[in-house]
Automatic annotation (TrEMBL), chain A:
UniProt cross-references to SUPFAM superfamilies, sorted A to Z: Thiamin diphosphate-binding fold (THDP-binding)
Xref: NCBIfam families: PDH_E1_alph_x
Source superkingdom: Bacteria
Entry EC number(s): 1.2.4.1
Full protein name: Pyruvate dehydrogenase (Acetyl-transferring) E1 component subunit alpha
UniProt keyword list: Oxidoreductase, Pyruvate, Thiamine pyrophosphate
Needed cofactors: thiamine diphosphate
Keyword Signal: no
Organism: Modestobacter versicolor
A Gene Ontology biological process term: branched-chain amino acid catabolic process
Record bears the keyword Oxidoreductase: yes
UniProtKB/TrEMBL annotation, chain B:
EC category: oxidoreductase
Transketolase-like pyrimidine-binding domain segment(s): 6-181
InterPro entries with a match to the protein in the record: THDP-binding (IPR029061), Transketo_C/PFOR_II (IPR009014), Transketolase-like_Pyr-bd (IPR005475), Transketolase_C (IPR033248)
Taxon lineage: Bacteria, Bacillati, Actinomycetota, Actinomycetes, Geodermatophilales
Cofactors, names only: thiamine diphosphate
Pfam families: Transket_pyr, Transketolase_C
E.C. numbers: 1.2.4.1
SUPFAM superfamilies per UniProt: Thiamin diphosphate-binding fold (THDP-binding), TK C-terminal domain-like
Name the record gives this protein: Alpha-ketoacid dehydrogenase subunit beta
GO MF entries: magnesium ion binding; pyruvate dehydrogenase (acetyl-transferring) activity
Keywords for the protein's UniProt record, in alphabetical order: Oxidoreductase, Pyruvate, Thiamine pyrophosphate
Amino acid sequence: MSALSQTTEVVDPVPGADAPHLPGQPDLVQLLTPEGERVEHPEYSLDVTDDELRSLYRDLALVRRWDVEATALQRQGELGIWASLLGQEAAQVGAGRALAADDMAFPTYREHGVAWTRGVDPLHVISLFRGVDQGGWDPVATKFNLYTVVIGAQTLHATGYAMGLQRDGAESATLAFLGDGATSQGEVNEAMIWAATFSAPVVFFCQNNQYAISVPIERQSRVPLFRRAAGFGFPGVRVDGNDVLAVLAVTRAALAAARDGQGPTFIEAFTYRMGAHTTSDDPTRYRLASELEEWKLRDPIARLKAYLSRSGIADADFFTSVDAEGDQLAVRIRQGTLEMPDPAGTEIFDHVYAEQTPELARQREEFVAYHASFEGAES
Amino acid sequence: MSTETLTIGKALNLGLRRAMEDDAKVVLMGEDIGKLGGVFRITDGLQKDFGDARVVDTPLAEAGILGTAVGLAMRGYRPVCEIQFDGFVFPAYNQIVTQVAKIHARSKGRLPMPIVIRIPFGGGIGAVEHHSESPEAYFAHTAGLKVVAVSTPSDAYWGIQQAITHPDPIVFLEPKRRYWEKGEVDTDATPDPLFASRVLRGGDDVTVLAYGPMVKTALQAAEAAAEEGRSLEVVDLRTLSPLDLEPVYASVRRTGRCVVVHEAPTTLGLGAEIAARVTETCFHSLEAPVLRVGGYDTPYPPSKLEEEYLPDLDRVLDAVDRSLGF
Ligand SMILES: Cc1ncc(C[n+]2csc(CCOP(=O)(O)OP(=O)(O)O)c2C)c(N)n1
């Protein structure tokens, strides 16, 4: 056997690499089937009360309602852009609900469902997309970091924050969100190397929604994403991202392990982006309608609803009341958006530095004087 | 002569097409440039016609795009890299500044680096953060790179072809908010050289310099000034590195006044360099200090404030007034 063919043998794909991106594999952790049947998993059990199950449903439904309303507001010209979470509600609510009060979340720009679980006001998130500010919520108080648009940058921040927690002896962890596309970034690889080397209490939560704008996952990875973790030296798990119970169980376990000093975990939540990448995108250019139809059958909200109804945990009145709450939320979001004041122009100068510079103070004065000169001219 | 009316976006698309037809070594690389045709559709239809080995949808990794371009260039290819938005060039910044820019010098000319880095730049489209930046000074400050900024469909069509055939690495800045502006393109013409500024409108009172998205603003200001009996000479800089200031000096020697306009933050921006050179060269002809109109030294603001951040026609006219007031 020549050296060349030997090498070829060594790099032969790992098992499963030939069909790396298909759901329904044995590796996929699931606690609730797409038909809404409760199933058990040998490694991940879930202890939830009926109350908790109902409130998970409520979160999913309200977050979707918020998303639909925001998309409509964008279409009506009230928002510059909107990044929809449609289809990813279970991944986000499941992950968000797994966080303890002192854990810190590091989102991308699509984690509205996680924001919701952290008590961030939807209008604060909307203000960013309306162009009023760069993120109106308090990341320190909410333990939900500002959105990060530059792909992958936040995974390093989450790792550093985790290292801080570790040094301080805090029994907390961080949850870093990223997309499938983000796994290609050098910085994400650096974050995983850091996390592994220092055994930092960070959990990487990757929502594999199958696309990075138009680019399918096959263009980012030859192996299932969760397998990458092994190369960095920590566990990787693939969970059904449309199953809120499984996501909750898997993320809870990973965060508990992190808090317990066992270091990082990589979670791949296998899901699908039902909408466009953002409202500026045209998905018909790169994906087939049949694919969308297939994923509709795995809808995260419908399956929990089926389970709750069938098991008698929730009745028709409950669902009606959640719908009514959704209507109220939508009204509050719409009104709040329309009434949102534009920021004062001077704000752009006010927080550039903790200690204002003379030059910027001068530019601020110049700005004020310049605009005042117009008001004089018009009156 | 064959003249077509095209948008800047379409002109770039046709220019890329022609460059790919002319040279099989031209390879386009970037995120979403294939089926989607890029987020601005600049590469629309090119993958269909040239295949996915020549129009490469890359993984989501800018350092990867530029770093592999270096290797491809060493093998005789001519990579044309698309950066999706200005603010996302920074993951690739290390490759551009430490490798792309320096390899030719370090190899004593043995390793060619004919790479084009296309960047839609500047604000005014109502986007969220990192989608509206003007990073030109970082690149113009780096020896080994050349930087151009187009402002018309004709320059877009010819400029992209000239950049691709040019032997040095070029940061090719496209004024994203002007992608939809239309103009005449003569596809048989002999184009102006790439590294040359151009007087777009003659005038006697003040020389106004601009590039990229601000060229239109400068022309609008000249139009408005004319109504008040003031005559502005508007120069489109076109090349930011190397700078072509001879036509500017000639103009300033006549007008005695100079205003430089750009969107990028004013401090240490291109305007500062130009002001210094014009002052050094034309000191005895100047009736007023060279003035700059630029962005404030702040991060690019949320979109509700961008109108107040971006230099507009009024701010240009205000500077013209100040210049004439000396
Ligand atoms: C460094 C960088 N490059 C490019 C972009 C433009 N961009 C925004 S979102 C996106 C795709 C992200 O895909 P993925 O990580 O899978 O997350 P998803 O949007 O699917 O949630 C791209 C290319 C960016 N924001 N940052």
